[in-house]
Amino acid sequence: GGAGVTHVTLPPAVLAVVDEGSVGSGVVVIAAGEECSREVMVRWSAGRVMFNSYGPAETTVDVSLWRCVGSAGRVLVGGPVVGTRVFVLDGGLGLVAPGVVGELYVAGVGLARGYRGRGGLTGERFVACPFGGPGERMYRTGDLVRWTVEGELVFVGRADDQVKVRGRRIEPGEVEAVVGACAGVARAVVVVREDVPGEKRLVAYVVGSGEVGGDLPGEVRAVAARRLPEYMVPSAVVVLDELPLTPNGKTDRTALPAPGYGTADSGRVPGTAAEEAMCEAFAEVLGVDRVNPDDSFFDLGGHSLRAVALTQRLRLHGLDLSVRAVFEAPTPAELVTRLDLPYEGNEFDVLFPIRPSGSKPPLFCVHPAGGLSWCYIPLTRYVPDDIPLYGLQARGVNDTGELAASVGEMAADYIRQMRSVQESGPYHLLGWSFGGIIAHEIAVQLRAAGHEVGALISMDAVPFKKADPERDGEASEAEEAPEPDRAEADFDREEGRHRPGALRMLRNAATLSFEHEIGIFDGNMLLVTATEDKAEDASSAAAWKPHVSGEVAESFLACKHTDMARPEVLAQVWAGASDWLGLAGTAGAEEPGR
Fold it and tell me: Does this model's pTM top 0.90?
């Protein structure tokens, strides 16, 4: 502040690391050269006159000034200086209204004549001014701005910084403004990196202010997820002691380090079945061997598109989460808390109480090939509240204990579980894929024991055709038995490898399905068939008719077999089941949905 200095112009990156007390309060400070953060503006404008200056070298040199006001919610570019005119224009060089983002053009006495020896570039950037006199030119800055209603300019970002990340156009400056405004962040820079060829990621670099302890990257991502569309939330947040600077004091974006992606290596193993399933889903979507419960999805290289893939995979199994939840709770342990699972006990129990309350007979939902019944949890939204909902799950599903030796053994076991909560009929059954085969066997055994079956709903289940005993045994079996690898692949596509015991369950389901001697159910059955992955005239009713003494009603849904347990498809399944039950009028049964 000595030696008669009255004004000092410095880049914001320098002001960020200089103690404001080292410059006398009577010295006017001008921030120039790059975008100024609000934190820098508030700190340096306290008790002194401060301006934020904007202007490219081609306009020699200032275009606009704004008198900094510490109480302002943002840093403005301000209004044009004397002898300068500015225009905010759209792609057709038309003036835009206040609040609308456009490109900034500058006219006036300060314009350079062009670039020496580069006529093409001069003609591209110095263009005829439609708002001036004959021969007047204006400079196309390439900066995106908008007018406030008070007539001040707000800098938004660079037009040439706009990039497409996974098909979406992103302006890093907008993301930078949100990240920089987060509590605990003193300075922020947001860039698009392509450290892996073909894999563009939005990365935020922040310098902490010390206001937030602990997980600053997690806090930043959570705030960004609330204020920005999912595709604009940074995939990684890197905390630095200081931002790197160029020799002239501007932020050196080329020197920003690549983010490191790795596991937390906490050594903690999943504590619940839900955590274990979540860790497996993370690993599969991210393409890594192992994920710990405390590993961050984004620290392992996740981004918005992979977050979408994660939520879609989880929804296939009834775990309905939004992409925003992944950003706000990015570890398996945190994300499990967002599931709102209906049962606080062991999620691997054979009888899984999805919603045990209700005055009417329950609906029992039989697991698909993977053994878990979590996929039916979304039915709580569509099945009336007075109908209890239970899932039936396979023994050994957690990779421990003996597996069932037959579908008949499974059915007998599940009937004992059902009768522990409902002593007598009518019993209502629903099963998807392999679960439809088991549900049919449960219905057969219940009727053989004299119990009433009110509803049997089979979701895209097809009984395997066994060899004809009248034909040559070995040749017939070789011809008609499903190939083991193909059977496993079919089940694998249905249920996925979500946990260590999944493949074990899938293989057993394939074997038991083929070996099962299908009986005859004394009643009616509703068959819900997926059509998108089948021939146009596909129908499974004919395959089931020999095994049902009554009517085999069939409804068709325009979805794939693997989509049958998506929440929106389950809504259609239940709507069709309610209509069918109303028409069927099962004698003496309190029917679901009535």
Answer: no
